[in-house]
Amino acid sequence: METKNIMIVGVGGQGSLLASKLLGRLLMEQGYDVKVSEVHGMSQRGGSVVTYVRYGDRVASPVIDRGEADFIVSFEVLEAARWLPFLKPGGQIVTSTQQIDPMPVVTGAMTYPEDLVAKMRATGAKVDALDCLSLAEKAGSTKAVNIVLMGRLSHYFDLPEEAWQKALSACVPARFLELNQKAFALGKNA
């Protein structure tokens, strides 16, 4: 199998590390060679962050270059637009419609761009945009946006539900498992 590439992008503190850990574990348990990068960016300052997950028969490097991402999973819509050049032709964006103002918007130096989902689609990108924040709240915690996104991403993989649930159980503390299972289901079935 040729190597597949997933970029997980967002703003620091949104849970991209757990999402990448979950994907890495899921794919390893399916027998793939998997490389997961560390989080790159200002994760503790609310800045832009990116994590790479690469899998296949044999993966040499954890890095994804421009035009190579099969999937971009985004916690925030501006981050999806920012990383769009990394999506390969025919690739898929799975994004939350949540908007988090970056510092230039907070300070008034810029305004948040409008209609980003439409603008990304206008480039020919396939965009699956979902209000993950509302679904996470419905599951019981705004911190579950990452797992709502993983549920949505599961639509694009031909892997059994049990495999996703097993990886979720292994990566989430037991006291939060039920909440995260609900968040996963809400994302998957949205």
Question: What's the arrangement of secondary structure elements?
Answer:
Layout: E1 4-11, H1 16-29, E2 33-36, E3 40-41, E4 48-56, E5 69-74, H2 77-82, E6 87-96, H3 103-106, H4 116-122, E7 126-130, H5 132-139, H6 145-153, H7 161-171, H8 174-189
Parallel strand pairs: 1-5, 5-6, 6-7
Antiparallel strand pairs: 1-4, 2-4, 3-4
Q: In words, what does this structure look like?
A:
The chain has 190 residues and is an alpha/beta fold. The protein has a domain at 4-133: Pyruvate-ferredoxin Oxidoreductase, domain 3 (3-Layer(aba) Sandwich), CATH 3.40.920. 39% of the residues lie in helices and 23% in strands. Strands 1, 2, 3, 4, 5, 6 and 7 form a seven-stranded mixed β-sheet that branches. The model has no long low-confidence stretch (mean pLDDT 92).
Mean pLDDT: 92
Residue fraction in strands: 15-25%
Give the strand tally.
Answer: 7
Measured on Cα atoms, how large is the radius of gyration? 16 Å
CATH superfamily of the domain at 4-133: Pyruvate-ferredoxin oxidoreductase, PFOR, domain III
CATH level-1 class of the domain at 4-133:
Alpha Beta
Q: What's the helical proportion of residues?
A: 25-40%
CATH architectural category of the domain at 4-133: 3-Layer(aba) Sandwich
**Poorly predicted ranges:** none
End-to-end Cα distance, whole Å, is: 30 Å
CATH topology of the domain at 4-133: Pyruvate-ferredoxin Oxidoreductase, domain 3
Structural class: alpha/beta
- Assign an overall shape: globular
List keywords for this structure.
alpha/beta, 190 residues, seven-stranded mixed sheet, Pyruvate-ferredoxin Oxidoreductase, domain 3, globular, 7 strands
